[in-house]
Amino acid sequence: MDPFEAHPADAGRRHFLISGTAAVAALSLPHLASAAAARRMPSTSSPHSSTHGVKQMSNFVKRPDGANIFYKDWGKGQPVVFSHGWPLSADAWDAQMLFMGQHGFRVIAHDRRSHGRSSQTWDGNDMDTYADDLAAVIEALDLKDAILVGHSTGGGEVAHYVGRHGSKRVAKVVLVGAVPPQMVKSATNPGGLPMSVFDGIRDGVAKDRSQFYQDLTTPFFGANRDGNKVTQGMRDAFWLQGMLGGHKGQYDCIREFSEVDYTPDLKKIDVPALVVHGDDDQIVPIDASGKMSAKIIKNAELKIYAGAPHGLTFTHTDQFNKDLLAFAKA
């Protein structure tokens, strides 16, 4: 069966989804139907001072180029740091943050630049800068022994952070439906997706990103599969988070999740790693991503969720939360 085959009710959208959304590799699912209200509420966590030369405001870290990176910081204990995917925000991790916080962990998630509440920058929307922004948040909060969790593009960000900044502040790494080692097809990556797929994504985002993001929820959540439990709330939260981001930054990010080769970064991960992927991921097909990453990362553990879509952290919340907690405590 064609992995992008739509339900008959979605047949009219099938071509659009294949050429424009089928491989969007960087999304992180929305977790709460109340995301609109949550997005407007400040974090209740107390400010944490920094001794590492990073200028910090309440719930924001200011970068050298003037960009303000929003983060939320809840609870106490060993830090778990979440990196969301394209085109969403830190709110995509709310279900995991609440769960891990209730189990004794300090949970932190930031909005990538040009996403969510962070600055909408014209320049600097590249993976090097994303990884450096993540490092700035970690340093501003002086996090140590952190567990880094990245979904989709966020998985690329986590891997690139380790590749650029090392693992001195990192205890463990979790990649979920993540884009590494590389999305686009090339001579060195014959199992990747053709560039035409990503050109279609660029075209959809440039012309009508609102409709594009609405349509994207179908393969993201597996709404075109029999027996799915996708709600309108999931779709609405996804769309809202996407539309709050900057248009130029989200457009630029397409290159970062599709063309960057994260293989060197994966080889530098020298801490325990968990790779989680759904075998029905219509966005980031498992064979060229999760299975490959688990082979490249030394001693990585691979967990495959049968029938799970790209947005498995919502559709398989209980299963993923249980696995994340067990890995964090191991």
Automatic annotation (TrEMBL):
- Which superkingdom, per the lineage? Bacteria
Domain AB hydrolase-1 spans what residues?
Answer: 79-316
The alphabetical list of record keywords is: Oxidoreductase, Peroxidase
Quote the Gene3D superfamilies the UniProt record gives.
alpha/beta hydrolase
Q: What is its EC number?
A: 1.11.1.10
- InterPro entries according to UniProt: AB_hydrolase, AB_hydrolase_1, AB_hydrolase_fold, TAT_signal
* Annotated segments matching region Disordered: 38-57
Asked if the Swiss-Prot or TrEMBL record annotates the protein with the keyword DNA repair, the reply is: no
What GO MF terms are annotated? chloride peroxidase activity
UniProt KW Transport keyword: no
Question: Pfam families from the xrefs?
Answer: Abhydrolase_1
Top class in the EC scheme: oxidoreductase
- Bias type Low complexity, positions: 38-52
Q: What family, per the record?
A: Belongs to the AB hydrolase superfamily. Bacterial non-heme haloperoxidase / perhydrolase family.
Q: What is this protein called?
A: Non-heme chloroperoxidase
Look up and give the organism this protein is from.
Answer: Xanthomonas campestris pv. phaseoli
Q: What is the lineage of its organism?
A: Bacteria, Pseudomonadati, Pseudomonadota, Gammaproteobacteria, Lysobacterales
